[in-house]
Amino acid sequence: MLSARDRRDRHPEEGVVAELQGFAVDKAFLTSHKGILLETELALTLIIFICFTASISAYMAAALLEFFITLAFLFLYATQYYQRFDRLNWPCLDFLRCVSAIIIFLVVSFAAVTSRDGAAIAAFVFGVILVSVFAYDAFKIYRTEMAPGASQGDQQ
């Protein structure tokens, strides 16, 4: 740990670089399959949030909540910050995030389409697309990280 005197004696540029080094973005992750899936989920959630804001503002909280949750996971994975929390089962948390988003967006999308408003219908269409993206992400997480016997069956 640096004392106050050590921080004061260093150049300001060194302190900023040392503090920002902990949150360096892994560009390889952002271009990986998982990174592209999270970015797609984030973009579609933002589009649905805008559609709900334009038509039925009662449903925009669900889209906004999922937007922030997906943004948090993208930040944690892109900065490799999730590795500092080794007691959490990250594949399980990510799987539960996808399953909860599927349920929320299915219910909200079908409830919004009953209003027959143009923006609500657009939110329904993007909601169905987003549900399929979340379902694909949940399938990939289950298949690669959580499938029983996936790695044990090969060793027998």
Structural summary, described in words:
- The protein is globular and about 45 Å long.
- It contains seven helices and no strands.
- The protein has one domain (28-146).
- It is 72% helix and 0% strand.
- α4 packs antiparallel against α7 (118-146).
- Its main location: membrane.
Task: Please tag this protein with its features.
mainly alpha, 156 residues, single chain
What are the SSEs and their pairings?
Elements: H1 4-9, H2 12-20, H3 27-30, H4 33-54, H5 60-78, H6 90-112, H7 118-146
By DSSP, the count of extended strands is: 0
Kindly state the mean pLDDT as a whole number? 82
- The number of distinct helices, counting runs of at least 4 residues, comes to 7
Give the strand content.
under 5%
Instruction: Give the CA-based shape.
Output: globular
Low-confidence stretches: none
Structural class from helices and strands?
mainly alpha
